[in-house]
Write a structure and sequence with these properties.
alpha/beta, binds zinc ion
C-alpha cells in the first residue's frame, strides 16, 4: 500500500477518497522526486500538489514556486473533471513537475491567476500538519501561473512522459488529453505548440524508453 500524498484544496474540504488525483499524486510523487533529485541536485524537490475547487476557473494546471522556492502544482477542478483516466492526470502532473526539474524560466507571469486561488488553497489547506500549514500560509500572492516558450513546453512533454511511464502510467494515453482540452489561449495546453507536435514528442519519448 502506497502512502497517500496529501493534496491541498482551495476550499479546505478534503478530497474524496475516490478522487483520482489522490491516487495519481500518490503514485507520481515518488517518480517525480527521484527524477528531481537526480537532475536538480541543489534544487527543491518537495512538491506541493493542490486543487483549485473554484468551478468558475477554466480547465488549467500550472506549476509555480512559493517564496522559498518550493514547487507548487495546481490543478483546477475543471481540468480534473475533463480527464477521462488517471493516465491523463499523471501526464499533466509529470509535465508540470518537469518544468521545475528542467529549470525552465517562465516567459511571463499571469497576474490573473494569483491571489484568490492560491490564498484559498494555501490558507485553508486541510489535513496538513501544523508546520505544513504555517509554511502554506507564508506562501504569498507572488504566486502566479507560469508560461513557457514552445521549446520548454516540448521538453516538459518529453520529461513528463518519462516520469509518468516510470510511475506505471501510459503517457500515450495520457497525452490524448491534448486532443480534448478546450483551447485555453496562452494557458496550459494552449495552442502553441500544436497538439500534433506535442503528441509526436511523447511518442518519440516512449519509443526511445521502451526501445521499440
Ligand atoms: Zn507547460
Amino acid at each position: 500500500m502506497i502512502s497517500r500524498q496529501p493534496v491541498m484544496t482551495s476550499n479546505g474540504v478534503p478530497l474524496l477518497e475516490s478522487d483520482p488525483i489522490l491516487d495519481v499524486a500518490a503514485y507520481m510523487t515518488p517518480a517525480v522526486n527521484s527524477f528531481c533529485r537526480e537532475r536538480l541536485r541543489s534544487g527543491n524537490c518537495n512538491f506541493l500538489i493542490a486543487v483549485d475547487e473554484d468551478k468558475d476557473q477554466p480547465a488549467n494546471a500550472f506549476q509555480t514556486l512559493d517564496d522559498r522556492g518550493r514547487p507548487v502544482i495546481v490543478f483546477t477542478r475543471s481540468l480534473l473533471k475533463l480527464a477521462r483516466n488517471k493516465d491523463e492526470l499523471a501526464f499533466v502532473l509529470g509535465h508540470e513537475a518537469a518544468h521545475h526539474i528542467e529549470g525552465h524560466i517562465p516567459r511571463r507571469q499571469d497576474q490573473a491567476m494569483t491571489g484568490a486561488i492560491l490564498v484559498g488553497i494555501l490558507g485553508q489547506s486541510a489535513g496538513l500538519t501544523g508546520e505544513e500549514l504555517l509554511r502554506a500560509q507564508e506562501i504569498g500572492a507572488g504566486l502566479a501561473a507560469q508560461h513557457y516558450s514552445k521549446e520548454f513546453e516540448l521538453e516538459a512533454d518529453a520529461l513528463g512522459a518519462e516520469i509518468a511511464l516510470a510511475a506505471g502510467y501510459d503517457p500515450l494515453k495520457g497525452a490524448n488529453f491534448f486532443a480534448r482540452l478546450p483551447d485555453p489561449g496562452d494557458r496550459f495546453l494552449g495552442s502553441h505548440p500544436a497538439n500534433a507536435e506535442r503528441m509526436a514528442v511523447v511518442r518519440a519519448t516512449v519509443k526511445r524508453l521502451k526501445g521499440s
